[in-house]
Fold this sequence. Notes:
alpha+beta; Endonuclease III, domain 1; Nucleoside Triphosphate Pyrophosphohydrolase; four-stranded mixed sheet; three-stranded antiparallel sheet; 14 helices; 7 strands; DNA-binding; MutY_C
Amino acid sequence: MVDDVVSEPLAPARGRGHLGRMTSSPAARAAASGAQKSGTSAPAPAALLAWYDRHRRRLPWRAEPGRQADPYHVFLSEIMLQQTTVKAVGPYFTGFLARWPTVSHLAAAPLEEVLSAWAGLGYYARARNLHACAQAVVARHGGRFPDDEAALLDLPGIGPYTAAAIAAIAFDLKASPVDGNIERVVSRLYRVAEPLPGAKPRIKALAAALTPAERPGDFAQAMMDLGATICTPRSPACSLCPWMEPCDARAAGDAALYPVKAPKGDKPKREGVAFLAVRADGAVLLRTRPDKGLLAKMTEVPSTPWGPKPEAPEGHAPLKARWRALPGAVEHVFTHFALTLKVLRADLGAGTPAPAGHRWVTPDGFDAEALPSVMRKVLAHGGVE
DNA sequence: GAGGCGTGGCG
DNA sequence: TCGCCAAGCCT
């Protein structure tokens, strides 16, 4: 029973929590409303599936209606879509599939090629795990993805969400993936007052209770499409929603307040100095970052360490040269800090050798490098590329 | 379990 | 302009 996982007392809530009273915090308001299932009925999977049959998005990794999706396509797209928009993933998905048409092809590829193909998409641990996962699928399962949620969960880079998504979408098993879309849909349906991330277990249980035995894969994708196109974060189009009737937040008129989230702290700033060495033939001095940590194994322009305070560049330059400060700086925001990078440039003779651990790369070789966006910015700032 | 881990777009 | 956000995972 769905109500088993909802702790708030049952109370009528129509007319309460109206947008007219917006003086308290979302958390306080949501808690004060204290109501559950003020919608007029239980959310029916059939209503959502009927909506999905008419309004489903056509996406490169999706099978035609009524057809089975290729597990490798589902896997590849799900990894790429982690914390990443559909639009950004599109060309990467197409490119990967063209270059590595099966999981066995991907497993056989050198990691460096996978990293350079992934460059620009972000969260590079995903690319390393993607590669490791492909190799594990070949080694453990003979090159076929297991049609079993627990076995999928055991693979590198596949967590609870992705295991459930592949099980449901590729194999039509009764599994309930919960991503940000589904968290939002469910938290509004039931007007979940507890803030994230604490509310995750409850939302997960609610989502599982909603999942039908028939067409669980379409149901999961329908939930995501609903969250992406109707039940959006800012201004949800409730009047177009197939679940308008049973939705508690719609009844209360405060859907945009959900999901409630715990307040987050300020983002710290870091600064550093990058050394852009340019040889007379146009080659730039690059190196590979360490195996672990931020941007692991990716290509970088040499720089001082990035710290809270600007560090003196002396002693960090990769080679002895006449370094000149370029005007301005490169700004880049990572997940957990904002970076300001000043750039020093030096122009060197064509025969200058690369110091140990470094290499000269001409601009026509940049595409073969695993250059993250922040480093592309540095190169562009220095007039290279 | 809280924090590390990218990037680009949008209101 | 800038904080928020997008199909999370790992440690």
